[in-house]
Structures are given as structure tokens and as C-alpha cells.
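Consider this one:
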Amino acid sequence: MGRKSVKSQIKQQRMKEEKKQLAASTAAVKKANALEDPLADFPVFNSYNKNGLVVRLICARVKDLMPEVVQWILDLMKRNMESVYNQCEWGWNGEKKEEEMTEDAAWYLVAFSSEGNQPVAFSHFRFDIDFGFEVLYVYELQIEPEHQRKGLGKFMAQVLELMAFKNNMRKVVLTVLKHNKAALDFYHSLKYVIDETCPEDNFEEQFCYLILSKTNKNFKPPAAVEK
């Protein structure tokens, strides 16, 4: 049998490098998910006290949250987003959303009021592989209506970024519905941009959402893992 072509050799080398990169990214995500508390490295960000709002923050897996807190999370999600989902082809599917939000991989950043110790805001996020790379994916960031526009959302978004970049995630990624102008304005104000993985509308298909991201400027590619 003759020698492999140069093109074939280049292709095989590229595939080998991609396999190593994916293994390294997977190891980084696994390490982040093994943390007991991703917020532990940032004690200064355990509380928020501005604009008449005083809260404390915790970070935990969904399985470690009290059942009543999980129920509140599901309830707030429905109250804040059901009508928004129903304005596009996605529609609202409560059972599907509950299943997604209670999967074992789900992490939560939850804010509790200092008075009465009631939950007032949450973010559902995950350390995950997205298109082959390690990311912190923000699934939701929801705040009780009476506590909105007090800076808490921006604060929690910054905490999510800190946890992502501390654990050497390549970027923070999230999905926003195109008609949700308030959410789009919010993330654009935080310097999120359209991600390279965001699908583009075309003649055959139009998409009701955008994928936004913020890159970790200090990202250090993890050491390749041989498989």
C-alpha cells in the first residue's frame, strides 16, 4: 500500500489535536463540577447591599437546595417567563422546563433577602462543554419583579463571570429570545456579543433566539489529555 497523501496526514493530525483538546476541555469541566462551592473563592461577593436591597448569595447544586427553594425557583420562572415563551414558537412547556431545571448537572446561584430569609433571585447555570469547548452556560437569571432594577441582576451576572473565569472556562454563554428586549439590552450593557455558534436566519429557517457570550480574556488552554 502506498504512502498516505499529505492532505490525509494533515487531516489525521488535525483530528488528533481536536481529540486532545476536547479531552482537556472535558477534564476542566469535570474539575469545575467537582467543586463543593464555586462561590467559596469570592467571600466579598457573598452579599449585596445597594439601592435599598440587602441580600446574601449562596451557590449550590439543585440536589442540595431545600425543596421549598426549588419550588420557588420553578414558580418564579413560570411567573416571569411563561408569557415571554408564548410569544414565540417555543411556547411554554412547564414539565419540560422543570425537567431541565432539576437535572443533576444544574447549579444555582440564589439570592436571599436579609429580612425573612426569603429567596428573591436565582441563576441556573452549568459548567459544560459547548461545541467542543469548556464554558459556563447561563440558562436563567430571574429576579422577583419588586427587586428588579436595583443592580442585583448585574451583580449576579458578574459573580457568574468570576466563577467561570476562576475555573478557566473559555467563556460565559447564554441564550436570549430576540423579542425579549429587556434581556437583550441588559446583556448588551454587560458587553455580551453574538457568539460564533449563534445560528443565522436564512431563507429556509428563522430563529427566535440569539446566543450571546463573553470571552475569558485570561483563558489558558488546559494541558492536552492523551486518550
Remarks:
- The longest helix spans residues 6-33.
